[in-house]
Amino acid sequence: MPDTEPNSLPDSPSQAPGAAREETPEQAQQHRLAVFRSAGRTLAHQSVDHTMAERLTALLADGAEVYDLDAFADIYGDGPVAELERRTAEELGFPAAVFFPTGTMAQQAALRCWAARTGDATVALHPLAHPEVHERQAFGQLSGLRTVHPTAEPRLPTADEVRDFDEPFGTLMLELPLRDAGYVLPSWDELVDVVEAARERDAVVHFDGARLWETTAHFGRPLREVAGLADSVYVSFYKTLGGLSGAVLVGPESLVAQARTWRHRYGGRLFQQFPAALSGLLGLRRELPELPSYVAHARVVAKAIHEGLAAAGVPWFRVHPEPPHTHQFQVWLPYDAEVLDAASLRQAEAGTCLFRRWSASPSGPAGLAVTEVTVNAPGLTWTAEDVRAAVADFVALLP
């Protein structure tokens, strides 16, 4: 929920002297971003922490590492956009790739193409998957797709759940990691078995790999091997790699050609997208090689948060999963989200950004809240003792 801290400016000349005006949601968000950005210590830099001038300056300063900045800008997907498609296909081990302005659009195109090929418009996926929770029923409203759920457990489906599911489906869609369940992943053997179970049913397999980049440490397999289990994969460039926006769908050449047609129909064939493409290429070069170190240190941070909360005597808490499967994980505490938001903001104002935004428990009892913790480059400088001390300071700010 937005902050409602008072602002000293009156709403209008008729407002009583000394009365305070509440911040609008946009003002509250800008205030929070400014506070988090100014904190001297943080576990993660996020793209929203930077001003437009900073993002543009960085692209101009660093873009020549990945593309000739003296070349003409892209026109309808050539130039740097085509280069990002080529590089992504190469990283994931697929013959073809197509760039989309959003992942929502990329998966709409991919799954309706598979539906046409399989003759079955039913997609099996988790009820916590992104299209079910965050896309306003776009699959059904725009693409004529129907969704079914082999499991409602807060994890990916098992092979038996896929194999024995009592409804037919043409495509199995797996979100790796499953973000809303806590960035959770199956084991490698479990993932292989699930894919095989889908193929036994003559279904194709599509990976919602918005954050697939960060799964290799957990699986103990290179990115190509992970992606190669699926028939098609979507990846994002801003969620993990620090890009401005954009997504790429990889798959067989004929599927990608068909998806390009649907991209045009959906309004995704933009005239120029070079800033997003350059930032994606920079993410592949700079952030992708660092992800294993982020995942390893996230495990140190998560363990220290658990220890810090226990030492502080918090009556109930949960760090989930333990250890984290990626460089992102959840922390649950028995307080209202507004209380925890206020404590996070006060701690950041004092110079340390440990937690950011908290949300009320989506399905549990009132009085529980959850936050997502991300560890990237700046978090590598935190020792376990640093984390425990920051947790103690945070708990001291709670009522």
Automatic annotation (TrEMBL):
Aromatic amino acid beta-eliminating lyase/threonine aldolase domain: residues covered: 76-306
Cofactor(s) needed for function: pyridoxal 5'-phosphate
Keyword hit for Chloroplast: no
Pfam families (UniProt xref): Beta_elim_lyase
Amino acid composition bias (Polar residues), ranges on this chain: 1-15
Gene3D superfamilies per record: Aspartate Aminotransferase, domain 1, Type I PLP-dependent aspartate aminotransferase-like (Major domain)
Keywords, comma-separated and alphabetical: Pyridoxal phosphate
Segments of this protein annotated with the region Disordered: 1-29
Family per similarity comment: Belongs to the threonine aldolase family.
Protein name (record): Threonine aldolase
Organism name: Streptomyces xanthochromogenes
Organism placement in taxonomy: Bacteria, Bacillati, Actinomycetota, Actinomycetes, Kitasatosporales
